[in-house]
Amino acid sequence: MTRILGQLEDLGGGRGAVRIEDRFETTAQDLWSACTDPERLARWIAEVHGELHVGGTFRAVFTSGAECSGEVLACEPPHRLLVRTRDDGAEADEEMEVRLVPDGTATRLVLEERGIPLEDLPAYGAGCQIHVEHLRALLDGVAPSPMAARWRELEPIYRGQPISRL
């Protein structure tokens, strides 16, 4: 059975959120580095170029091929990162927030992407889960699963998930 890490939420106004949560056997500092160091980011989610500090702007090219520009809204090492992004050609901004919570000898990662059109939530859910699985592979020192094959497995599962209303 496939482990599903995400929940889909209806935020109202035709927009929603994806929340992915997972536990990693590493320190918050190591996980923070994997989420903020451009060299490590490129190995699991995106090549990021720009000014990665509060108020700084950046450009990201995701491993999926999607591209966006963004701005860092909050950066509280090693616990919270909040960015506002706009995909090329998108009608509205989205926010991505990463929170790291100590959990015994491990660290819990909570990733939320908000402002997504409701009809796109299942696709984003599958994509976000794949990125978090690739983060796990990076931290474990193993090769990540092929994105296309994993997408074909996860997307129908997320499409069948209920969307909760906040």
UniProtKB/TrEMBL annotation:
CDD domains: SRPBCC_CalC_Aha1-like_6. Belongs to the AHA1 family. This is SRPBCC family protein. Residues 26-139 form the Activator of Hsp90 ATPase homologue 1/2-like C-terminal domain. Pfam families: AHSA1.
